[in-house]
Amino acid sequence: MKFRHLACALAAALAATSLFPAAAQSVNLRFATSQVNPSEPVVKVMHGFAEKVKARTGGKIQVSIFTGDQLGPQKKVNEMIKSGARMLNVTDYGQLSQFVPDLGIVAGPYMFTSIDDSRRLFASDLFAEMSKKLEAQGMTLIMADGLFGLRHVIASKPVRKPEDMAGVTVRVPPSPIMLATFNAFGARATDLPWSEVYNALQTNVVDAAEANYGSLAGSKLYEVRKVVSQTGHQTMFATFVTSTAFFKGLPPEQQKVLLEEGRAAGAELTRLTLESDAAYAEELRKNGVQIVTDVDVKAFAEKARSAYDKVPGLTPGVVDRARKAIAAR
User: Fold this and answer.
1) Which helix (H) or strand (E) holds 177?
2) Which residue, 174, 264, 283, is CA-closest to 222?
3) Which own/partner pairs from 156-159 qualify as long-range (CB within 8 Å, at least 24 positions apart)?
4) Over the stretch 261-312, which tens digit does the pLDDT of each residue have?
5) Could you tell me if residue 20 is inside a domain?
């Protein structure tokens, strides 16, 4: 009888540990990103975040960083997190819109004209509602507002007006809003993981791609395409996401550390991105890239307006709500 009681007690203890591992022992969080180059702002911020979380939790949470899609493409990692994997992922709102379609507006074309615009949206009731919907899907935002940069087109020829995109096969992320955007420009948008972009351009599987300056330089796409056109079609914000189940299983003090360091990481990523864009553009020029600045951005923005109507699952009126939040003073 004693042995039976002992076995039951042991089983209960093991079950509690599996459900709430962080409360009983140290946790090693795998932290994934598509980016490769350690000099890119987001990779620097990831390392800083990992160090601060380890220090503030006394080593109870240790973060191991995996670059270059080592743990799989963003979409796969996000799906693992949604299913409860003990991971963090650097992702964006275009990718997250696959779980909460309304989040795609944060990655929408020409949604913001300034950082202040984005801050008003992130502080809005609308964004809070969308974040709660994401939590209900099993994903919690640890960092919500890290500026990743304006995205531009890299190709073998200048792109000055939407007509220049007609029939061009362009790689975009697996994001409904980005697919709709480039289709609205008249291009043939095709989604590929970031880790496959260099080879796809090199083998002419795609004619063009689009990304921010840091990613264009960090992934050395200038070796396979020599013209960057400043379309500025998206102001991209990176996020850190983790499993809601895992996060809620942490002690409150550890939850607080993750969220506080996430906010600090967002501010730091924004600062580094703003500081580094000019340097990355100069790096591209030194590697023989032509940077086209006389782009008819107004024409692109007008064409892009129809993209919002093509995104499946958007709540009626959500784009207008977002624009009202941005316009609020």
Assistant:
1) helix 176-184
2) 283
3) 156/207, 156/208, 156/225, 156/226, 156/227, 157/227, 158/227, 158/229, 158/290, 158/292, 159/208, 159/227, 159/229, 159/231, 159/292, 159/295
4) 999 999 999 999 999 999 999 999 999 999 999 999 999 999 999 999 999 9
5) no
**CATH for 155:** 3.40.190.170
Q: Is 8 contained in some domain?
A: no
**Structural domain containing residue 194:** 26-327
Q: Per the domain annotation, does 217 fall within a domain?
A: yes
* Long-range CB contacts (within 8 A, 24+) of 91-95: 91/238, 91/239, 91/241, 92/148, 92/173, 92/175, 92/236, 92/237, 92/238, 92/239, 93/237, 93/239, 94/173, 94/175, 94/176, 94/177, 94/178, 94/236, 95/173, 95/174, 95/175
Distance of alpha carbon 32 from alpha carbon 114, whole angstroms: 28
Both tokens assigned to 160 = 């000055």
> 53, 110 in Cβ contact below 8 A?
no
E strand segments, 156-300: 169-172, 188-191, 209-212, 227-243, 290-292
Domain count, the chain: 1
CA 153 to chain centre: 18
List the beta strands (DSSP E) in 122-173.
139-155, 169-172
Instruction: Tell me whether residue 4 is in a domain.
Output: no
Q: Is 166 helix (H, G, I), strand (E, B) or coil?
A: coil
- Give the model confidence (pLDDT) of 148-183 as tens digits: 999 999 999 999 999 999 999 999 998 999 999 999
Taking alpha carbons only, the member of 268, 219, 238, 171 closest to residue 35 is: 219
pTM, two decimal places: 0.87
Residue 90 per-residue DSSP state: E
